């Protein structure tokens, strides 16, 4: 269990990145949703012990993280949105280097590295420098290093960026298996991924958690009130505008049918997210 209480962080330029955040995350996969600038990356860097908060508390499985960050680091896997690597070092060498830093037994490290290279489809290029990798291959290396050491808490910031559909599907299957015994905090702009993979989610706006809980509970207030139309509605709240075969498609929140050609739709987490986004002041 991860417990966050009244967490605050303001940067030197006065930007209040996270404001009074409180959140409870049990074992499993928890999604973190929010637009750019909502404070998601700041929250994840703080949880990864890369920067201290100004105030508040973080505990994980009884560990006071702010007082004893090394105790969490030994159980943590972290994939930031962007990361650097040592030049000229191969993927295999870098994984061994990280295993050494994590103080993983050599025999266990050898087994884990071989398994992770296979799972991330990097075995054939494991002896090539990571700096020579394509964006998708580099991201797969990032996933491998985050999973090294069987961490009990994994933080993933946009893990599917640069992955092709097959690689993304493979990662999803892996994360679902891992999350049965591990807490996985997943941040992504692909709302559908969070709805499909996570049991719980938190929505961040302007540095605050505006809602959190089981995904079914987050969607429930919109149930029976989402409609789809092929023209801009004259009533209700426009949730989103998209296109299908090049034609406009509008999703609308309204307690009653907004037009005779409107089609009732099952509410989704994406509807809930856009509904919240449209409510927030700009």
TrEMBL record:
InterPro entries: AAA+_ATPase, ABC_transporter-like_ATP-bd, ABC_transporter-like_CS, P-loop_NTPase. Residues 2-231 form the ABC transporter domain. The keyword Ribosomal protein does not apply. Gene3D superfamilies: P-loop containing nucleotide triphosphate hydrolases (3.40.50.300). Transmembrane segments: none annotated. It comes from the Bacteria. Keywords: ATP-binding, Nucleotide-binding, Transport. Pfam families: ABC_tran. One of its GO terms (molecular function) is ATP hydrolysis activity. Belongs to the ABC transporter superfamily. PANTHER family: ABC TRANSPORTER, ATP-BINDING PROTEIN. This is ATP-binding cassette domain-containing protein. It comes from Alteromonas profundi.
